[in-house]
Design brief:
77% of the residues lie in helices and 0% in strands. By secondary structure, it is mostly helical.
C-alpha cells in the first residue's frame, strides 16, 4: 500500500487555512462592531425616535453625556471606573459593564492584530500574485461571515428580543445584564430598539464589505482566465 506523504502535510495546511479564514471573519466583524459603536449620532437619533427624554426624565445633553461615558469606559483599558451623570449604578451593574468592557477590549486586540498583519504583509510581500491571494483569502472569510450574518438576520427578523436574550446568554455567564430600572436606571436610556438599529447597521456594513470582496474576487478570476 502506497502512502501519500503529502497528505500529512495537507491536513495541517487545511487546518491553518480554516483558522485563518475564521480569524479574518471575526476580525472584520469586530471592526464593524467597533465602528458602529463609535457613531454617536445613532444614539442621538434613538433619543428622538423613542422619546428617551420623556421616558428617563433626562435632557438630551445628559443622555448623550452618559452614552459617551459608557462607550469611552468600555473601550479604554486605562479607565477603571464608570460613573454616570445624574444616574446611580448598582454593584451588579458595575460588574456587567466591566464584563462588556472585556469583550470590547478583546475586539480591539483582534482588530489590531488583523490590521497589523495585513499591513506587514503589504509592506514585505513583493509577489505579483499577492493581491490575488489576499482577495482569495478574504473571499473565504466573507463566506464564513455571510453565514453568520444571514443566521443572525433571520433570527432577528423572527424575534429580535429572543435573539438579544440568546446572545447575552452566550457572552455572559450570569444574569447581571438584566438590570433593575430602580437600581440601574441607565437601562431606561438603552432601549432594545437602539441595539436593533446598531445590529442592522453592523450587518449592513458586513454585507457591503462582502459585496466588495466578491466583486474583486470574480473580477480577478475573470482577468486570470482571460490571460
Amino acid at each position: 500500500m502506497r502512502i501519500d506523504k503529502n497528505a500529512y502535510l495537507r491536513i495541517p495546511n487545511m487546518v491553518f487555512k480554516l483558522f485563518r479564514d475564521i480569524f479574518n471573519a471575526i476580525s472584520i466583524i469586530s471592526i464593524a462592531v467597533l465602528g458602529v459603536l463609535n457613531i454617536t449620532s445613532i444614539y442621538s437619533y434613538a433619543i428622538h425616535k423613542y422619546e428617551l427624554n420623556k421616558y428617563t426624565q433626562l435632557s438630551t445633553e445628559i443622555l448623550m453625556d452618559n452614552y459617551k461615558r459608557m462607550i469611552y469606559y468600555v473601550q479604554n483599558p486605562f479607565n477603571k471606573e464608570l460613573v454616570f451623570n445624574n444616574l446611580p449604578m448598582s454593584n451588579f451593574g458595575k460588574i456587567h459593564f466591566f464584563e462588556v468592557k472585556r469583550i470590547f477590549i478583546a475586539l480591539y486586540i483582534i482588530s489590531i492584530i488583523f490590521i497589523s498583519v495585513m499591513i506587514f504583509k503589504i509592506i514585505t510581500n513583493k509577489n505579483k500574485d499577492f493581491g490575488k491571494r489576499v482577495i482569495e483569502n478574504l473571499n473565504n472569510s466573507v463566506n464564513i461571515m455571510a453565514f453568520i450574518f444571514i443566521f443572525v438576520s433571520i433570527m432577528g427578523v423572527i424575534d429580535f428580543s429572543k435573539t438579544f436574550y440568546f446572545f447575552h446568554k452566550i457572552f455572559f455567564r450570569n444574569d447581571y445584564w438584566i438590570f433593575d430600572p430602580v437600581a440601574d436606571p441607565i437601562i431606561n436610556a438603552l432601549p432594545e430598539e437602539f441595539f436593533m438599529i446598531e445590529l442592522i447597521l453592523i450587518i449592513s456594513l458586513l454585507i457591503l464589505f462582502t459585496l466588495v470582496i466578491k466583486a474583486l474576487y470574480y473580477k480577478k478570476h475573470l482577468n486570470y482566465k482571460s490571460k
